[in-house]
Amino acid sequence: xxxxxxxxxxxxxxxxxxxxxxxxxxxxxxxxxxxxxxxxxxxxxxxxxxxxxxxxxxxxxxxxxxxxxxxxxxxxxxxxxxxxxxxxxxxxxxxxxxxxxxxxxxxxxxxxxxxxxxxxxxxxxxxxxxxxxxxxxxxxxxxxxxxxxxxxxxxxxxxxxxxxx
Length: 165
Description:
With 165 residues, this protein is mainly beta. It has helices spanning 2-21, 127-130; strands at residues 25-32, 39-45, 50-57, 63-75, 82-102, 105-125, 134-140, 143-147, 157-164. The two termini are 31 Å apart. The model has no long low-confidence stretch (mean pLDDT 81).
């Protein structure tokens, strides 16, 4: 738990520094089901239609998974503040698996995870509606492990709440 709090504090500090220096930045929380696909999210706009996202996840609070993704954003019809996005990237990290017992000995397995991620979702910029720079997004982020077995399923639906400048 101490490691998790240290990671959160470091991420929030770096996020605050980045927000103060660059208006192309948004950061916040990605709220996934049972914390498996949630975490702290930060995105940087490379252009009007492309962004890179960094996500720090704590699967079940048993480790840390770092994810980096490239995303393409497109406006939906004539709705100015509504867009959809898609993209992909990689994840890596270390997490604690289940406790196992064999021949009278008990141990906790640790696993290194490295894999591929995809993402597709919709985003609404609530800035003009509530006069506060808040982005809401709902996305699906499946993942596949090349090494390890953290991303053993293809599901990953989450709601993200981000502060944007």
